[in-house]
TrEMBL record:
Keyword annotations of the record: Membrane, Transmembrane, Transmembrane helix, Transport
Membrane topology category: Multi-pass membrane protein
GO cellular component terms listed in the entry, alphabetical order: plasma membrane
Keyword Transport: yes
Subcellular location: Membrane
InterPro entries on file: Na/Glc_symporter_sf, Na/solute_symporter, Sodium:Solute_Symporter
Protein's name in the database: Sodium:solute symporter
TM helices/strands, residue ranges: 6-27, 39-60, 72-96, 122-141, 153-176, 183-201, 221-242, 263-288, 308-336, 357-376, 382-404, 411-429, 435-458
Organism for this UniProt entry: Synergistes jonesii
Sample GO molecular function, one term: transmembrane transporter activity
Keyword check for Transmembrane helix: yes
The family this protein is said to belong to: Belongs to the sodium:solute symporter (SSF) (TC 2.A.21) family.
Length: 464
C-alpha cells in the first residue's frame, strides 16, 4: 500500500463523513412534523430526487458486494448481468411512478393496507423490518471494512464510527436531511467513478492490457451456470420492484411529473454506474489477483488511480454506503412508528409525539442492525438474503396493488406475502443444512414463483 494514497484517502473519507454529519444536523431545522420527517414535505425537485434515488440505491452492495465482488470473483459478464437488474427494474418503476406518487402515502404498508386490509399492513411491516435490518447491517459492515482499508483500524471500530455518522444523518433531519445529503454524495460518487475508473484503466496500460492479465473466461461468466447467474440477478430485480425507499422518494417528489423525470434519469445513470463498477472490478482482478473481492474497488482507488482522484473515489465508496444506510434506517424507523406504534399502541398520538417515537425507533433499530452483522459471513450473503426476503414477500403484492388493485383480493395478497417470506426462510435453513435442491438453486426462484402463484390463484375472476 502506498502510504500517501492511504493517508489521503483517509482524510477524504473523514472530511466527507464530518460534512454530511453536520449537514444532517443542519437540515433538522426544517423538520416541523411527521410528513417533513418521512417524505420531506413532498417538496423534492428533480435534481434532488435523482440524487437521492441514485445514492440510496447504490450502497455497499454496489462497491463491496454485487457487481464489485461478482466481477472480481467470476467475470465481467456476471457483473454486467447483475447490474442490469437495477435499470430494468427502474424502468418499470418509472412507468408506474405517477401512480406511486398518486398514492399520497408515507410507507409501503400504508399502500398495501388500501388494497389488502389492516392484517396485510401489519405483516408487510414485519417483513420490511426483517429485510431492511439486513440492508442496514451490511452498510455498517461496509463502512467498517472501508475504514480498515484506509486507516488500518479494526472492522469493529470502523463499524461503530459508521453507526455514529449514520445516526447523525437520519435521526434528526429525517428525509429532508437524507435527500439533500444524498445529492451531495451523488456528486461525489459521479466524480469518483466516471473519472477515477477510466484513469485506473489508462494507468494499467489500457483495456487490452487488463484483458491480457485476466484468467481465462473472465470476460464472460466464469464457471457459473445460467441458473446461478439468474440467482444473482433476480433478487435485485424483484426487490427493487417493491423497495420502500424508492416508493418513499416518489412520494416525496413535489408532483407526478417530477417523479417521472426523476425515474428516467435514475435509470440511465444507474446503468452507467453499473457498467463502470463492473469494469473497475475486472481491472482490480487483473492488477491485484490476491486481495479479497470486497476490497477490489477500494484497493484499485488507493493503488491504481492518481492520489487526488483515488482519495475522492474512496470517499465515494463511503458515500455509497452511508447514504443507503441512513435511508433504510429512516425508512424502517417510520414503519415502526407509523405502521406499528400508531396503529396498535397509541392511535391518538399527535404530530410531536409521533416524531419523537420515530426518532427513538431509528436509534433502536440501528442497534439491532449492528447486532445482526454477527449472523452473516459476508456482505454479499447478507445482501442476497435481504433482497430475496423483500422481493419475494413484498414486491409481487405491492406492484399488483399499484397497477391493478381491482384484480387482486385481500386473501390473495395476504397469502402471497406470507408464502414469499416463509419460502425464503425455509430455503435459507435448508441451504445451511446442505440440502441438494436448496444449495443448487437460489432461494429467490421458488420464493418469488410461489408468491406470484398464490397471488394469481386468489385473484378476482372477470365476469363473463
Amino acid at each position: 500500500m502506498e502510504n500517501v494514497n492511504a493517508n489521503f484517502a483517509f482524510y477524504c473519507v473523514a472530511i466527507y463523513l464530518t460534512l454530511i454529519s453536520l449537514l444532517g444536523v443542519y437540515f433538522a431545522k426544517r423538520i416541523k412534523n411527521q410528513e417533513d420527517y418521512a417524505v420531506a414535505g413532498r417538496s423534492l425537485p428533480v435534481y434532488v430526487l435523482v440524487g437521492t434515488l441514485i445514492a440510496t440505491w447504490m450502497g455497499a452492495g454496489t462497491v463491496m458486494g454485487g457487481a464489485n465482488s461478482l466481477g472480481y470473483q467470476f467475470g465481467l459478464g456476471v457483473a454486467i448481468a447483475f447490474s442490469l437488474a437495477s435499470p430494468i427494474g427502474q424502468v418499470v418503476l418509472t412507468f408506474i411512478s405517477k401512480k406511486i406518487r398518486r398514492q399520497n402515502a408515507q410507507t409501503v404498508p400504508e399502500v398495501i393496507e388500501k388494497v389488502y386490509g389492516a392484517e396485510a399492513r401489519f405483516i408487510s411491516t414485519i417483513i420490511i423490518l426483517l429485510a431492511y435490518l439486513g440492508v442496514v447491517a451490511y452498510q455498517f459492515l461496509g463502512v467498517g471494512t472501508l475504514l480498515q482499508s484506509t486507516l488500518g483500524i479494526s472492522v469493529n471500530t470502523g463499524t461503530i464510527i459508521a453507526f455514529v455518522v449514520i445516526i447523525a444523518t437520519s435521526l434528526f433531519g429525517g428525509l429532508y436531511s437524507v435527500a439533500y445529503t444524498d445529492f451531495v454524495s451523488c456528486v461525489m460518487i459521479m466524480i469518483g467513478l466516471f473519472i477515477g475508473v477510466p484513469l485506473a484503466v489508462y494507468n494499467a496500460g489500457g483495456f487490452s492490457s487488463i484483458v491480457a492479465r485476466l484468467p481465462e473466461g473472465h470476460l464472460g461468466f466464469g464457471n457459473l451456470s445460467f441458473v446461478q447467474v439468474l440467482g444473482f440477478f433476480l433478487p435485485t430485480f424483484v426487490y427493487l420492484m417493491g423497495d420502500q425507499n424508492m416508493y418513499q422518494r416518489f412520494f416525496a417528489a413535489k408532483d407526478e411529473d417530477t417523479a417521472m423525470k426523476g425515474g428516467i434519469w435514475w435509470s440511465l445513470l444507474t446503468l452507467l454506474i453499473g457498467v463502470v463498477v463492473s469494469i473497475a472490478a475486472i481491472t482490480s482482478r487483473a492488477l491485484y489477483p490476491d486481495i479479497k473481492p470486497a476490497q477490489a474497488f477500494i484497493h484499485l482507488a488507493q493503488h491504481g488511480m492518481p492520489v487526488f482522484i483515488g482519495g475522492i473515489s474512496v470517499a465515494a465508496v463511503a458515500a455509497f454506503i452511508v447514504t443507503t444506510a441512513n435511508s433504510f434506517l429512516l425508512s424502517i424507523g417510520i414503519n415502526t412508528s407509523s405502521d406499528l406504534y400508531v396503529r396498535y399502541f397509541n392511535r391518538e398520538a399527535g404530530p410531536e409525539k409521533l416524531l419523537k417515537v420515530s426518532r427513538i425507533c431509528v436509534l433502536g433499530l440501528a442497534v439491532l442492525g449492528y447486532v445482526m452483522i454477527m449472523y452473516f459471513p459476508n456482505i454479499l450473503a447478507l445482501q442476497m438474503y435481504a433482497y430475496t426476503m423483500y422481493g419475494a414477500a413484498i414486491s409481487p403484492a405491492l406492484v399488483a396493488a399499484v397497477i391493478c388493485p381491482e384484480r387482486v383480493t385481500k386473501f390473495g395478497g395476504l397469502c402471497s406475502m406470507i408464502t414469499g417470506g416463509v419460502v425464503t426462510i425455509a430455503m435459507e435453513i435448508l441451504k445451511k443444512r446442505g440440502w441438494g435442491f436448496a444449495v443448487t438453486y437460489p432461494s429467490v426462484l421458488p420464493a418469488v414463483i410461489c408468491s406470484i402463484l398464490v397471488l394469481c390463484i386468489f385473484q378476482k375472476r372477470k365476469k363473463a
